[in-house]
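ok new one. same drill as before - structure tokens go in, u give me an amino acid for every spot. 96 of them this time. try not to just spam alanines like last time pls lmao
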């Protein structure tokens, strides 16, 4: 996953309804990330931020196919002395 705020990454597409959540299990190096979901029709749930061990959730979501997405909260140097911001490893779970 990119450590640059200009990159959004699609995580997974799932049929979801009711209560949905994303848990950020681990990032290496550790980063704070925004998560949200966009329905096939274009409606989306608002972005929420969390860090390692945290969960973001939404209640009362209409039944639809949702693309879950993420991006880093702020530009972070995950690349040491090398040019650019680099990438972080991300482990997560989605509960539709």
């Amino acid at each position: 996953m990119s450590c640059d705020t200009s990159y959004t990454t699609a995580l997974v597409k799932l049929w979801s309804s009711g209560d949905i959540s994303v848990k950020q299990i681990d990032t290496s190096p550790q980063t704070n990330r925004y998560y949200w979901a966009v329905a096939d029709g274009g409606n989306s749930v608002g972005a929420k931020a969390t860090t390692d061990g945290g969960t973001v959730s939404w209640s009362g979501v209409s039944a639809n196919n949702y693309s879950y997405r993420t991006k880093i909260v702020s530009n972070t140097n995950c690349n040491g002395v090398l040019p650019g911001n680099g990438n972080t490893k991300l482990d997560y779970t989605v509960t539709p």
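The radius of gyration is 14 Å. and btw The first strand starts at residue 9 and ends at 28.
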